[in-house]
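Much of our argument rests on the idea that a fold can be written as discrete symbols. In the encoding step, the backbone of a single protein was reduced to a row of integers, each denoting a local shape. This step matters because it turns folding into a mapping between discrete strings. For completeness, the protein is quoted in full, as a sequence line and a line of structure tokens:
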Amino acid sequence: MTTRVKQYINSYTDSSPLAVFRIGFGLMMLFSIVRFWNKGWIEKIYIEPSFHFKYYGFEWINSIGEGVYILFILCALSACFITLGFKYRPAIITFFLSFTYIELLEKTVYLNHYYFICVLSFLLIFLPLNSSFSLDNFISKTKSISVPRWTIDSIKLMLCIVYIYAGLAKINSDWLLQALPLKIWLPSKYDLPIIGETFMQENWVHFAMSWGGMLYDLLIPFLLLYKRTRTFAFLLVVFFHVFTRVLFPIGVFPYIMIISALIFFDAKFHKRIINILKIIIDPIRKKLSHINIQNVKFNSNKKIIWVLTIFFILQLTIPLRHLSYNGNIMWHEQGYRFSWRVMLMEKLGYTTFKIVDKDKNQFFYVQNEDFLTSYQEKQMSFQPDFILEYAHFLGKHFKNQGYDDIAVYADSYVSLNGRRNQRYIDPEIDLLEIKDSFENKKWILPLKK
């Protein structure tokens, strides 16, 4: 076993897949950042709100007001540098830190693909994506035609983890036995040409897409890994993600997954892409043709291998943490985030807060719109950690207003995947007495089937 591992670590392959992946990743990140800025979301999400929801353990991340624009500029510039392979290592580190900081500023905008970008950019810090076809090659006058096989396989492994966990998450009764939430979402797509008023209204289509989505996620990694089915699998990737993009407003995530899937193709395929790019930049290449670039061997670093081993152990175990909690994970949401659970639920809620002045034995209700944007209030109303964090914010706010001894109670009703509204939070519990932790949140009332 040890011998085989050593042989694998010391095996080499062509570096062109890393170069193509670097270019695709950089361009997609640049497009995503420009798109986010252009839609005015920076101001709406990070500047306008007076209160920001934070991730557990990252409450110390401070909001920086209009300074967030600087972070977006850093992201955009580093994405350009990544694409060009210029100062690659500082660029990818800068991108990871700035992008992750932005994501930690506001929890309401959590999306799986933002988390995927954070995780992937961290992984790319340790991979030689600038080993060939990069400006760094011209600066250092060296390139590595061959790189350790694990540098490419680690990206494949990360993609496989995402797909397989997404598929496993779909093996639940709502998704497979009731076609929920697709049965709720798809009929609203009646305005789609040809298929909107016909197929999108059919019950069998809802079930076919539910089962098809589950099978796609579970099988596509293996179809991409197997050479004979790889081309068919990639066409399936393109169709699936483009069709998903047509149906749902999920941003650039489909295109990121399509570009990422190219890593599964062999070096010959990527060399063809590089040759096409060389034709496009031919005038520049002619000016630099006098530079003699020496080929050097890229050696595996044991410290990096150990770091990535720990990284992948975490990636394999973090999505399983929900097993520590009883009940329906889509209801209590403990262990729901960071586990590749993609579009599994339609959840709506309405939550009001009662502030009780214990000294005067009086109470009043909070107008949530006084503190939260409409989007923040919507997200808060059905997510328990949001409700708890907001309750503590309210407690701190009203204590600063002169209320010395108060209690905060939540009256919350939530609907999951079309079920009737059910009381969500125990209304008799003072949320100021509850501290957020990884312990089971017993103040969340159980889901009634």
Summary: Residues 348-433 form one domain. DSSP finds 19 helices and eight strands in the chain. The first helix runs from residue 2 to 9. The two ends are 49 Å apart (CA to CA).
